[in-house]
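Notes from the 1:1 (GR / supervisor)

We went over the backlog. Supervisor wanted to see one worked example end to end before approving the batch request, so GR pasted a single chain during the call. The sequence is below; no edits were made to it. Supervisor asked that the structure be written out right there so they could see what the output format looks like.
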Amino acid sequence: MTGAPLPLTSEPSGMRAWLLSPEPHSRWQARLGRFYLGWRSFSRNPLAVVGLGIVILLILVAIFADVIAPYSPVTGGDLRTQRLLPPSETYWLGTDDQARDIFSRIVHGSRVTLFIVVLVALIATPIGLLVGTVSGYLGGWVDTVLMRITDIFLAFPRLILALAFVAALGPGIENAIIAIAITSWPPYARIARAETLMIRNSDFIAAVKLQGASTPRIILGHVVPLCLSSLIVRVTLDMAGIILTAAGLGFLGLGAQPPMPEWGAMVATGRNYLIDQWWVAAMPGIAIFVVSLGFNLLGDGLRDVLDPKAAK
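Structure output shown during the call:
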């Protein structure tokens, strides 16, 4: 009678074993190990991977727009023969009322969209993070004043408030970015404040105080890094809203100005031909929908990785 077969072991080997080592020998090894575990958790969500693919595709299209686009996004062809043509082998997504290739304009419009998203995130996120951490850590009248200011901004719908700021500053993509950034930071401040309220009475913060660390050093060196994960998730989810707000401003003529190939402005141009030449408005509208969906799916996946408490 033969003995029972030995159980198969799933011990990691090679690079995987190095990444999953319970006793990392350096900070880089520990960080790479955490990244690997986070990627494994992220990759289990197929919709999150789809969202990441859409966002990566957007970045690649924006980088290589000059190579991908077959025609100029600004100048069109012959208005007598190439105006409002349907999708074909020559013009994949058709042409608009100025005989411009819609595919080329959408490709170059990805640069405008990415430019708006990145700049708004870079402006609004530090403002919200600073306001929230200072408010939550200091408390008292500082907390009251900063949160009441935040409540004033949160009392108005984002698009309405952005319209008011753009109307005051004047139409243009730069003013639209400033207006969207001004209306985007309050939710980040609320999240950062909530995280700070849980952190400020922790034992390690008390230990840092006993070592003589100043308040700015505690906020910037210890509180802010612990608030970043929740804030990254919220910013990623908000990028879809930023795209829609920018498209709304462009649709109303207050964002990017002609002949810049901005998707919202393209939809506004196409609404005049929606019945007979539906592709003029539908194609940039589909681009807005797909990119917004990609950021939402990516944000959901990052929430499961960076915020385990929110995972189902």
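Supervisor's comment: The chain has one domain: 43-306.
Batch request approved.
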